[in-house]
Amino acid sequence: MTNHIQDYSHKRLNILTGEWVLVSPHRAKRPWQGQNEDVVDDNRPSHDPSCYLCSGNTRANGEKNPDYEDVFVFTNDFAALQKDSEVFSVNDGLFQAKSEQGICKVICFSPDHSKSLANMSVNAIHKVVKTWQHEYKTLGAMDLINYVQIFENKGAIMGCSNPHPHGQIWSQSTLPNEVLKKDTQQLQYYKTHNATLLSDYLKQELEAGERIIYQNDHFVVVVPFWAIWPFETMIIPKQAQNNISQMSEIESEAFADAISVITKAYDGLFNISFPYSSGIHQAPTSAGDHSHWHWHMSFYPPLLRSATVKKFMVGYEMFGSPQRDITAESTAKTLKSLL
Prior knowledge:
Largest sheet: 9 strands, antiparallel
Distance between the termini: 28 Å
CATH topology: HIT family, subunit A
CATH architecture: 2-Layer Sandwich
Number of domains: 1
Number of strands: 14
Structural class: alpha+beta
Order of helices and strands: HEEEEEEHEEHHEEEHEEHEH
Helix content: 25-40%
Strand order of the largest sheet: 3-6-8-7-12-13-11-10-9
CATH superfamily: HIT-like
């Protein structure tokens, strides 16, 4: 099987969504005549007077940031979701719409404008993790909120409007599309096997060893068998937990360690501050049994062959299904060599 999937076009199943990805390893040998760009100089000062996220600075809405020393959280001044949105629905034949309420927050990882998770200490990243845990529990306890999405867009290429090290938390009243797919797939597997989908997947990955990049006592960093993005990775807890609030102090430290390792490896890949979108998928905060959930964190980087060659989702991928040229196994080998 391994020889065939390294040489011939094939499809791989994303067990978390039930969707397929087309893999075309032979295409990786083709010459590149596509877009190349200059590498952006990412040297930044530790404090930027014009940055609305730096400590002590005034944000766009006129509020002044405190002189924070580690992690700082505030409600997004330009939130995509409104807490006090009117409740309504539209049911006019094929015109369907429903109101959506929610709360959006910004989380500054550090007061140092020049930093990213990749060059923060594990202890500093641990403070970010503990903040994520707190926000998940606090927001999730509200009657209004049924799902909490934690994510980070790093780099201008990912649409990040401010280079200051920060992420976002969008909490809302219904489940987003990707989460709904994963909820369905995991529930179906749990009912059949009485085990979480990712627990059994992780056992198979650890036995195979081909796509494992790093592991500590509590977490595994792996290139998913069904990865879409060229250097996509996933951090999975070895012990099945349905949300991040269930981590012990030791486990949250180990999670911070795993984040530190993979983000450092990314920066070493093309010797740049590596762009990506990352996010944590975990159980809904609504009432009910969510034992089928096994939370995980995914990193989706857009770079393909170098610091200036990007992966675009176009053509067949927009109208057919996701497709990749570099196999998950070769990606894992490359990233592991950077540790």
